[in-house]
Structures are given as C-alpha cells and as structure tokens.
Amino acid sequence: MTETTDREPANREPAPGGDLPEHVRRNRAAWDRWASEYVANGELSWRLGPGDEKWGIWDIPERELRLLPDDLAGRDTIELGCGTAYVSAWLARRGARPIGIDNSEAQLATARRFQAEHGLTFPLVHGNAEAVPFPDASFDLAISEYGASIWADPFAWVPEASRLLRPGGRLIFLINATLLMLCMPDEERAATNELVRPLRGLHRLEWSEDESVNFALSHGRWIGLLRASGFEVEGLVELWPGEGATSDFPYATAEWAAQWPTEEVWIARKPG
Ligand SMILES: C[S@@+](CC[C@H](N)C(=O)[O-])C[C@H]1O[C@@H](n2cnc3c(N)ncnc32)[C@H](O)[C@@H]1O
User: Which of 13, 26, 31 to mutate to test the pocket of ligand 1 (most atoms within 8 A of CB)?
Assistant: First the structure.
C-alpha cells in the first residue's frame, strides 16, 4: 500500500509472490516487464475529467456508453487489476472512495507517479485480485477494465468480487469480446473471419509469443458463473468503434470491429 487510511487491508494473503498460483506469477513477471509501454496511455487517461472518460481500445466516450453508475458519491469502490489506476481516478473525481489492487508493482509505481502529479491519492494494494485482502462486504462497486477481468481466473476472481461487495453492490467489467477470442490467431496477427479455436471449453489461453496467461469464457459460462456467485446479470454491452475510430491494438482492424464486437462489458448486481 502507498498510504495509510481507515481502510487498511486485512492480512488475508501471504507476502506478495509467496504462494501465488502459477498464472498469477507468470502474469506478474509479464506485467512488470510491459509496464513502461502503458505509461503513455495512462498519462492520457488520467487527464480525462468527469464526462470525458473514454473506454477500451476504441476510446468510446462514457457520455455515449453511460457505464459508470450515477450514484458514485461516497461509494467504496475497488478496481481489480487497476494498472495505472486511471479508472479509479475517474471514480474519485466523481466522488467515490476508490481502492486499486494490481498484481504488478511496476504498474503501481506508474499509478503512484500519476497520483502525485494530479494530487489525487487513494490506496493502491499490490496483490492478486483472486484473493483480495479486505473483509467481506467492503465495497459498493467492483470494476475492472482489461484487468483481473481478463488476466485472472474468472472462477476465482468473480466469487471473490461477490464476497467483497455489499448487498446491492455492482460488478462492472470490460473484456475482450468472446467472438474476438475465437477469431484471433495464435500469433501477432489481427482477427480473421474464421473461427480458429472452439467455444466449447474456452477458459485459459496461452500465447506462443510470451509467457502471459489470460482467460475467456463463453457467454453461457459467464452467466452461469455470475449467477452461481450470487449476481444478477443486468447487462452485456457490446462496444462498437465510432466512425473513423483507430486503435493501436494489433488484434483487430477497424473493419473487423465494425462488424463484430472486439470488446464487451458485463454489468451484474448483488441483490440487496
Ligand atoms: C491492461 S492492464 C489494465 C489496467 C488498466 N485499465 C490500465 O490500462 O492500466 C492489466 C492489469 O491487470 C493486472 N493483473 C493481471 N493479473 C492480475 C491479478 N491476478 N490480480 C490483480 N491484477 C492483475 C496487471 O498487472 C496489469 O496491470
């Protein structure tokens, strides 16, 4: 943690790096290595004030998507796999009390630098979003934009998010669209119009070009997992790039993304 608050994490996890699952260790090494490549995007995203936030690889405006709840003032939020923590900065500027957790100390170092530059501090925890060191029912919103939502095992992090949320709390997460994951060749190449892997059994994905591990599920399994974890599914929003939008993301062309979703956002709520 970077600072002390009244919301100190309880000691639920061994020291970072101790008994981490194999995919978490591998992703920690990968993200510590990649962190410097994510500084520029973090810098731009930290500058976006309320109403100007932009989501995902196509920079789709929050004004259009309305993903963020209206009633954030005073709410306790946790960002699962916060990276450079710009989403938490957005939440803070809308009146929330955010905490970010991330598996990469290098990403958190960037987040801390931006906090200092913007004079906006909130707790940042180095840890695994599959075992978060906070008590049950600590938060009103759990959110993840390409964080734990794709890099942690959904069968571990979704029940953990449910544990962390209070009755009535929301879970919002942005991920690669399932269809994209079926059409992405196992190389640094953009998605094609062919299905290159089965939907059946889709879960853990490893890539030949690096040591990282990520995760994807079919829509049916997402719904089953969310419901088994105590959530009601409120929405599944497919993201479409605006006219003329471009992206540095190498895995889908704008032409592909105009026809099939590259990204999707799940919105779920704990009854209460
Ligand atoms: C693409 S970044 C997304 C975060 C943020 N939206 C950003 O762009 O900076 C992915 C982040 O997920 C983090 N991550 C991966 N596995 C994690 C885990 N098991 N628990 C917490 N964070 C994790 C990585 O360390 C990385 O900072």
Answer: 31
> 124-142: string of b/e by CB count within 10 Å (b at 16+)?
bbbbbbbbbebeeebbbbb
Q: Answer yes or no: are the C-beta atoms of 143 and 87 closer than 8 Å.
A: yes
Instruction: Name the residue among 82, 225, 234, 232 with its Cα closest to residue 159.
Output: 225
The percent helix, strand, coil of the chain (3-state, each to 5) is 30, 20, 45
**How buried is residue 100: exposed, middle or buried, by Cβ count under 10 Å (0-12/13-18/19+)?**
buried
pLDDT reported for residue 36: 98
d(CA 191, CA 126): 33
Q: Is 209 helix (H, G, I), strand (E, B) or coil?
A: coil
pLDDT single digits (tens) 198-225: 999 999 999 888 899 999 999 999 999 9
Q: Is 145:264 a contact under the CB 8 Å cutoff? A: no
Name residues contacting ligand 1 (CB within 6 A). 24, 27, 31, 38, 42, 81-84, 87, 101-104, 107, 128-130, 145-148, 151-152
